[in-house]
């Protein structure tokens, strides 16, 4: 797992750079398991984001769970069975904040994605 994280870090940093400039990012979620992104955030920074699930088939409308945790493991935002939402918080710790997206169920065929602003 740690080796996967090291390999994905350069790509995640690029995506996070796009997020910081106000552009959106699309993450393709795996059929099983979660996809996570991290960002190094200083203390006392206002962070706001929104996300929407997209699926390349008309039916059904799949949902995801999302969890945002602080560097010390405190849960900042958690939602289950959502297709879209927004979150905002002011950081209280400096370090890597982790955001993980998890499909609530897997469907055969089609690609489940999350668009993040």
Which features characterize this protein?
1 helix, single chain, Jelly Rolls, 117 residues, 4-stranded antiparallel β-sheet, alpha+beta, 48% strand
Description of the structure:
The protein has 117 residues and is α+β, with helices and mostly antiparallel strands. It has one domain (2-116): Sandwich (Jelly Rolls), CATH 2.60.120. The chain is 16% helix and 48% strand. The chain is built from 1 helix and 8 strands, in the order αββββββββ. The protein has one helix spanning 2-20, and strands spanning 25-28, 35-41, 46-55, 64-69, 75-82, 84-90, 95-103, 112-116. The strands form 2 sheets. Strands 1-8-3-6 form a 4-stranded antiparallel β-sheet. β4 (64-69) and β5 (75-82) form a beta hairpin. The model is unreliable at 10-14 (pLDDT under 50).
Could you provide a short overview of the structure?
The chain has 117 residues and is an alpha+beta fold. It has one helix and eight strands; from the N terminus they run αββββββββ. The model is unreliable at 10-14 (pLDDT under 50).
- Pattern of helices and strands: HEEEEEEEE
Low-confidence stretches: 10-14
Q: Main sheet? A: 4 strands, antiparallel
Query: The CATH topology is what?
Result: Jelly Rolls
Helix proportion of residues, in percent?
Answer: 10-25%
Structural classification: alpha+beta
Q: Work out the number of β strands.
A: 8
> Rounded to an integer, what's the Rg over CA atoms?
14 Å
User: What is the number of helices?
Assistant: 1
- The CATH architecture comes to Sandwich
How many domains is the backbone divided into? 1
Termini, distance in Å? 27 Å
Write out the strand line-up for the largest beta sheet, numbering strands in chain order: 1-8-3-6
Q: What integer is the average pLDDT?
A: 80
- Beta-strand portion reads over 45%
Q: Which class in CATH terms?
A: Mainly Beta
């Amino acid at each position: 797992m740690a080796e996967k994280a090291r390999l994905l870090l350069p790509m995640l940093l690029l995506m996070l750079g796009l997020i910081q400039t106000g552009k959106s990012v699309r993450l393709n979620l795996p059929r099983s398991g979660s996809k996570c992104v991290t960002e190094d955030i200083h203390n006392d920074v206002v962070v706001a984001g929104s996300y929407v699930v997209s699926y390349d088939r008309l039916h059904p409308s799949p949902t995801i769970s999302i969890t945002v945790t602080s560097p010390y493991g405190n849960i900042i935002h958690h939602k289950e069975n959502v297709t879209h939402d927004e979150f905002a918080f002011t950081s209280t710790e400096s370090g890597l904040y982790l955001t993980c997206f998890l499909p609530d169920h897997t469907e055969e065929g089609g690609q489940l994605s999350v668009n993040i602003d």
